[in-house]
């Protein structure tokens, strides 16, 4: 940024709306479509039992995500603040519930999921160079490098970060298009056995509980549809672009998921998919030969992971930013670099904790306990929407730019309720207890550091010193908007 | 939020220890600011920070940190690259040759599918039905016969009358070529019989009385009075050697014309694209003066033959990358095969010992009998160190489902597809086809391939609505056909398909060692398959095969011997996955997980379960 521009922005240090509609779509698509569709699109199939049933479940999950997205587009325009779910829960239910969400996201969900994706990324990126399993230490080093570079890009320039995101989302879509094209070509040669009767329906689950579980895993493949709401304030023309980005992206994702699954089914049988360690690679091996399975597909998978990493970095750093702005997180997290206009401290915290996670191996299972927390968050947001629809002042409600029928949030609320209750009948109860425990562990933290305003003097002075040190180092200040 | 300049953090004053709570806040714009809601900010404001922008201390610090960051990054990256480059290259896994993992499917050309409605199956018919075979996991097609045979014979490929042409009753050479291309297009393989040591009596060589091409005995020769020598065209002063009967004169492999003709035939079929040859009756390639096989000489002839195949393959650009397989069957002389396999002349020998077992021979306990047969086979393979190639049914003996009752036959097919090595299945075996009844009692295991339930089209074999020469089954249930079973969940065909595909997919079943089977309560056969690593650990997955041949339900407790011996040291049965079950196993569903430590595995009578650990 040159001096002049800086001069202009002197009185307005804040995150600038630099995310276009296109960037918004690539963020949503990039975050939702991770490595899952390449590596293990099995959860649905395992429970659904047959190709036909699983395609149906994918479609239903897409519909679910779409309904959810409609609700989130109203939420995003009703409460046009960055921070997504966090901001909505804060508005609707107050500080404690929103802090608990922030807490699990801060200490567990974000660092571990970033670390896991980075490890997947590194593993596949290194696979072409190895004939046997890649050693852990190399994977971790490489994963660390990837996180570091992406964190740097995000700190350096928002535009560079969104461009990186565009690039990787597009390569991801190219990879998936390649899979779809290969599958289509294979089908056109007449290999339709797996997609016609009797094979397409063979093994279909008819028990409601199994179908519900299939739906449960299908819905999780769409998680991330609300991530653009984390960066609402940085969207150009958010009232128009937020809903548009959502309405464009979710159907694209649903269609891509369906077509990729059809492509897989055209080439692989249900058993082959369920037995495969990496479905896209088994697929490529059958249809593209060694080059496809040893070089092309692993690279595509790792590219796809880079895209997801970058999308999560962009969005989640804004969530912390938003939390700090509400004084629920240390002020540092709300600091913006004067030169770069990026939330450097929260980005570095996010990248740093993820790299630390890489080297503490056994924390990864924590994330398994928190799938429950994830559905709880979505549930709370939509419950919040319902509450606000009844408690907000008339004039605010009438002025909201997007008005959807009350039917959608109610429908979505009921579906989320169902998803929230379901695991209590199926999963290991201990897993849920751990999950609840992890969430509740935020309460003492809240009482001690957020609710309680008293700080012993020496701690306070050290903390202030640290804050100033970081500020000087990164040349960043709290958000400052001129009025 | 209103602009508010909190001066709390003025450099130099705050380190005195005053807590932020009692510092005054100046509100420039005189707007009311609610202090209760938020704690006072402690950060420096933009104005306060301004002076650190180009500060002679902080600016270099920033630059140094920036450089350090990238330095550390480059080090990490270089470290990762260095480890990748320096780490010893992992030995490429020994990839099994294609015939070691494929499921081969032997079919009779004449009875498989009649595409031109003349009542006789043909090459074009096999091409048309190839996808049905591919769908159920067949990877190698083995049509018998291909080469032109005696006009009254449809099945015996040893009755050769012309090595150089395909039998025109089955179609033209182009149609055979089309079949090969169809097979290759599906990444499948085609192998065929190549009778090298005998021909039919009606072969022109014999009819033209060309003695030099046959093994001949004059009255002065020691063989003249042996029972396997027969009068040459009724002459009483000259006899020819026949094998296995007078119908098939044995060729004289010292004759250059014989050699060149057969080599020529091999080359012709290689050019057409055939992937391998079943070369049988190799014991007759060299005989002593009494007509008894001379093993050492036979091996030499075989060596000559295989060498010429090899030289030819290497000389042709389009063949050089192919791996041509040469194999034989055990039914001939065992020692000779062992020798031939050891010297690498033959790639494998079909173990057809199970093709001759039947319910009667196996009284009172089928499991015991199977156990013994397996042990004998393992011993053979261990001594000879070759990949076993199992055949449980073939054109020379009654069908598996007729030798045993249906449920037992199904279990045996289940067993066959879980054994180590390669597999050869006889057409109809996949859906439990039984011998068919023909008028004269012949051809019983050579009934037509039944595609559909009985009807005017002869179970879907031929559109010719006139009676045909080949028998069909008269099973009233109409379940013994491909289509009915393909549409039924858990039918024998579906289970066959599951196993055939699984054994070509999972490393443990492709190359995994087998822990010798255990016999439990005389009725249950139990064994495991896994890739063995040090200390009896398993690399990858482990499969446990449990087959109950008896009439009673059996419980298998894996915590005690002998069942416990089958589990590799790094695996347990706390969460065993059900991989494949036969139709009447009701307690376990495929892909469910069960704990077989707490409760035993329950096998209903005549049922099998494949577990994956």
Structural topology:
The complex is a heterodimer of chains A (483) and B (613).
Chain A: H1 3-9, H2 21-32, H3 36-39, H4 43-48, H5 51-78, H6 85-93, H7 95-126, H8 136-156, H9 158-188, H10 208-220, H11 238-267, H12 270-275, H13 279-287, H14 289-325, E1 335-337, H15 344-359, H16 371-391, H17 394-399, H18 407-421, H19 423-426, H20 429-440, H21 442-451, H22 457-474, E2 476-478
Antiparallel strand pairs in A: 1-2
Helix pairs in contact in A: 2-9, 2-11, 2-14, 5-10, 5-11, 5-18, 6-7, 6-16, 7-8, 7-14, 7-15, 8-9, 8-14, 8-15, 9-11, 9-14, 13-14, 14-15, 16-18
Chain B: H1 46-50, H2 58-86, H3 98-101, E1 103-108, H4 109-112, H5 123-135, E2 140-144, E3 147-149, E4 160-166, H6 173-185, E5 189-193, H7 204-207, E6 216-217, E7 229-231, E8 239-241, H8 256-272, E9 276-278, H9 295-315, E10 325-329, H10 334-342, E11 348-351, H11 366-384, E12 389-391, H12 400-403, H13 406-416, E13 422-426, H14 482-486, H15 492-502, H16 507-510, E14 513-520, E15 524-532, E16 538-548, E17 554-556, E18 576-581, E19 593-594, E20 601-603, E21 608-612
Parallel strand pairs in B: 1-2, 1-13, 2-5, 5-9, 9-10, 10-11, 11-12, 12-13
Antiparallel strand pairs in B: 3-4, 6-8, 7-8, 14-15, 15-16, 16-21, 17-20, 18-19, 18-21
Helix pairs in contact in B: 5-6, 8-9, 9-10
């Amino acid at each position: 940024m040159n001096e002049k521009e800086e001069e202009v922005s002197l009185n307005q240090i804040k995150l600038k709306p630099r995310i276009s509609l296109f960037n918004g779509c690539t963020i949503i698509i990039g975050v939702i479509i991770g490595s899952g569709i390449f590596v293990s699109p099995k959860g649905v199939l395992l429970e659904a039992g047959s190709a036909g049933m699983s395609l149906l479940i994918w479609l239903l999950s897409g519909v679910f995500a779409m309904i959810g997205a409609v609700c989130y587009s109203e939420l995003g325009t009703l409460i046009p603040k960055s921070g997504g779910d966090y901001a909505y829960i804060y508005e609707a239910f107050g500080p404690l519930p929103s802090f608990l969400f922030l807490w699990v996201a801060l200490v567990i969900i974000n660092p571990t999921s970033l670390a896991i994706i980075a490890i997947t990324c590194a593993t596949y990126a290194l696979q072409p160079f190895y004939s046997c399993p890649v050693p852990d230490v190399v994977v971790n080093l490489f994963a660390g490098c990837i996180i570091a570079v992406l964190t740097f890009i995000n700190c350096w320039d928002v535009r560079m970060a969104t461009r990186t995101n565009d690039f990787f989302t597009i390569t991801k879509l190219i990879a998936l298009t390649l899979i779809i094209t290969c599958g289509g070509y294979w089908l056109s040669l007449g290999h339709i056995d797996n997609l016609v009767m009797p094979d397409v329906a063979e093994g279909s689950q008819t028990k409601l509980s199994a179908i519900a579980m299939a739906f449960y895993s299908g819905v999780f493949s769409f998680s991330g549809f609300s991530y653009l709401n984390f960066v609402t304030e940085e969207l150009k023309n958010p009232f128009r672009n937020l809903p548009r980005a959502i309405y464009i992206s979710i159907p694209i994702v649903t269609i891509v998921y369906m077509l990729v699954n059809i492509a897989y089914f055209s080439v692989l049988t249900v058993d082959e998919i369920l037995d495969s360690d990496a479905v896209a690679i088994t697929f490529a091996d059958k249809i593209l030969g060694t080059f496809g399975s040893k070089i092309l597909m692993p690279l595509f998978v790792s590219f796809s992971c880079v895209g997801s990493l970058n999308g999560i970095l962009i969005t989640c750093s804004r969530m912390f930013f938003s939390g700090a702005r509400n004084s629920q997180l240390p002020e540092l997290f709300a600091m913006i670099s004067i030169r770069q206009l990026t939330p450097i401290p929260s980005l570095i915290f996010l990248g740093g904790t993820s790299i630390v996670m890489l080297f503490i191996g056994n924390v990864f299972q924590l994330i398994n306990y928190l799938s429950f927390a994830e559905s709880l968050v979505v549930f709370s947001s939509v419950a919040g929407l319902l509450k606000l629809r009844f408690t907000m002042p008339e004039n605010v409600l009438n002025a909201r730019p997007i008005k959807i029928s009350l039917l959608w949030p109610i429908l979505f609320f009921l579906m989320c309720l169902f998803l929230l209750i379901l695991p209590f009948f199926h999963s290991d109860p201990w897993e849920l207890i751990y999950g609840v425990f992890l969430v509740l562990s935020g309460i003492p933290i809240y009482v001690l550091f957020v609710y309680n305003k008293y700080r012993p003097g020496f701690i306070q002075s050290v903390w202030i010193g640290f804050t100033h040190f970081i500020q000087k180092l990164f040349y960043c200040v709290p958000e400052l908007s001129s009025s | 939020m209103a602009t508010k300049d909190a001066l709390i953090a003025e450099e130099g004053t705050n380190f005195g220890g005053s807590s932020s709570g009692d510092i005054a806040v100046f509100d420039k714009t005189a707007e009311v600011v609610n202090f209760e809601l938020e704690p006072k900010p402690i950060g420096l404001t933009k104005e306060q920070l301004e002076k650190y922008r180009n500060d002679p201390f902080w600016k270099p610090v920033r630059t140094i940190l920036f450089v350090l960051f990238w330095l550390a990054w480059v080090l990490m990256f270089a470290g990762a690259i260095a480890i990748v480059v320096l780490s010893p290259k992992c030995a490429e896994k020994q990839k099994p040759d294609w015939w070691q993992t494929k499921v081969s499917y032997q079919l009779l050309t004449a009875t498989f599918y009649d595409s031109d409605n003349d009542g006789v199956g043909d090459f074009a018919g096999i091409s048309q039905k190839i996808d049905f075979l591919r769908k159920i996991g067949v990877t190698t097609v083995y049509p018998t016969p291909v080469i032109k045979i005696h006009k009254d014979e449809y099945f015996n490929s040893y009755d050769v009358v012309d090595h150089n042409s395909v039998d025109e009753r089955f179609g033209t050479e182009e149609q055979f070529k089309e079949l090969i291309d169809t097979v290759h297009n599906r990444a499948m393989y085609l192998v065929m019989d190549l009778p090298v040591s005998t021909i039919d009596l009606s072969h022109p060589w014999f009819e033209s009385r060309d003695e030099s091409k046959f093994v001949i005995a004059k009255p002065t020769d020691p063989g003249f009075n042996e029972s396997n020598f027969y009068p040459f065209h009724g002459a009483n002063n000259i006899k020819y050697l026949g094998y296995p009967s007078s119908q098939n004169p044995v060729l004289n492999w010292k004759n250059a014309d014989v050699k060149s003709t057969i080599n020529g035939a091999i080359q012709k079929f290689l050019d057409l694209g055939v992937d391998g040859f079943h070369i049988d009756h190799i014991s007759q390639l060299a005989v002593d003066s009494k007509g008894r096989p001379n093993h050492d000489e036979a091996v030499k002839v075989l060596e000559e033959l295989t060498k010429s195949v090899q030289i030819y393959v290497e000389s042709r650009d389009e063949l050089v990358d192919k791996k041509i397989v040469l194999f034989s069957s055990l039914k001939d002389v065992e020692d000779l095969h062992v020798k031939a396999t050891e010297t690498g002349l033959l790639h494998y020998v079909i173990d057809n010992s199970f093709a001759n077992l039947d319910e009667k021979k196996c009284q009172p306990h089928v499991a015991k009998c199977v156990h013994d047969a397996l042990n004998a086979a393992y011993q053979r393979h261990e001594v000879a160190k070759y990949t076993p190639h199992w055949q449980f049914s073939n054109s020379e003996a009654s069908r598996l489902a007729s030798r045993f009752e249906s449920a037992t036959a199904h279990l045996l097919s289940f067993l066959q597809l879980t054994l180590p090595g390669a597999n050869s299945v006889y057409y109809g075996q996949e859906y439990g086809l039984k011998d068919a009844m023909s008028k004269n009692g012949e051809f019983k295991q050579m009934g037509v391939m039944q595609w559909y339930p009985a009807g005017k089209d002869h179970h879907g074999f031929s559109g010719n609505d006139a009676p045909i020469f080949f028998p069909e089954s008269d099973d009233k249930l109409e379940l013994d056909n491909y289509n009915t079973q393909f549409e039924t969940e858990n039918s024998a065909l579906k289970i066959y398909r599951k196993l055939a595909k699984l054994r070509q997919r999972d490393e443990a079943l492709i190359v995994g060692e087998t822990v010798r089977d255990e016999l439990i309560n005389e009725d249950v056969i139990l064994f495991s398959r896994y890739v063995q690593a040090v200390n009896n650990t398993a690399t990858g997955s482990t499969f446990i095969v449990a087959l109950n041949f008896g009439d009673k339900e059996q419980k298998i407790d894996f915590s005690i011997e002998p069942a416990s011996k089958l589990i590799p040291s790094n695996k347990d049965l706390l969460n065993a996955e059900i991989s494949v079950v036969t139709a009447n196993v009701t307690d376990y569903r495929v892909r469910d997980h069960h704990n077989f430590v707490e409760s035993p595995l329950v096998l209903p009578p005549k049922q099998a379960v494949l577990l994956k650990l």
